[in-house]
Amino acid sequence: MRVIAQAGAYHVADGATYAEHLRVPCLSLGTYSLPAGAHDPQQPHTEDEIYIVLDGRGRLWTPDEVVDVARGSVVFVPAGEEHRFVDIAQDLTVLVVFGPAEGTATPR
């Protein structure tokens, strides 16, 4: 067992910030922090993702859909799907779970 005490802590130095807290072969976990009004620069990943919004408010965009997200939102994004947070109205703090670990999957 491992307690991941720092997971979910909002931290922004200058713009969007991702802090990885755990990496094992089958998954990785990190906190993604985006200040209000920020641009989300992320590109599609080769891994499936689950976003768990801990705080803040904005929208999650994909080419086919845009959904409002706020505290308590849980969203699945399949590997390879273009996506990004937009219209960030309040600082966002998001737990991100990658399966398998980020950067380890072969592109589909």
Mind explaining what this structure looks like?
With 108 residues, this protein is mainly β. It has strands at residues 17-24, 27-34, 48-61, 66-70, 74-77, 84-99. It has one domain (22-99): Jelly Rolls. The model has no long low-confidence stretch (mean pLDDT 93). Residues 32-97 form the Cupin type-2 domain. Keywords: Metal-binding. It holds the Pfam family Cupin_2.
Question: Which keywords apply here?
Answer:
about 0% helix; mainly beta; Jelly Rolls; about 110 residues; 6-stranded antiparallel β-sheet
Q: What is the helix/strand order?
A: EEEEEE
CATH topology: Jelly Rolls
The whole-number mean of residue pLDDT values reads: 93
Unreliable stretches? none
The count of domains is 1
First CA to last CA: what distance?
32 Å
Structural class: mainly beta
The CATH superfamily is identified as: Jelly Rolls
Shape: globular
Number of helices: 0
The CATH architecture assignment turns out to be Sandwich
- Roughly how many Å is the radius of gyration? 13 Å
**Biggest sheet character:** 6 strands, antiparallel
Number of strands: 6
Q: Determine the fraction of residues in helical runs and give it as a percent range.
A: under 10%
Q: Work out the strand percent.
A: over 45%
| Broad CATH class | Mainly Beta
Domain Cupin type-2: 32-97
Keywords: Metal-binding
Protein name: Cupin domain-containing protein
